Amino acid sequence: xxxxxxxxxxxxxxxxxxxxxxxxxxxxxxxxxxxxxxxxxxxxxxxxxxxxxxxxxxxxxxxxxxxxxxxxxxxxxxxxxxxxxxxxxxxxxxxxxxxxxxxxxxxxxxxxxxxxxxxxxxxxxxxxxxxxxxxxxxxxxx
Length: 142
Prior knowledge:
4 helices
């Protein structure tokens, strides 16, 4: 947060707008992750289903595409998580309902690491699938 922004008084309309922004950023993170997951699933199903009909080069091309998509997914999620956290930080101490909510929930365990696990864990898990698939294909070619 910029220096001094926590002292700027906001009217109810501005607070509502900040809350909507925080919700929007979280929604974007979830929706983008869903799109990436669907794209990976489709590519993986294609690669596995068509493996008998494709050349090894085409299969490896699919694998490389999936791996690159995993890296891009991770990068996009990292940026979106930062935007979501920034928006939440702007409203954290200004909305009484949000302050009460934050105090009522435990800040330990998965609540603390959940967003990062979701943001980074799923793309990393999918990347591991592509790596295992690649190792299997390359190992089979040797």
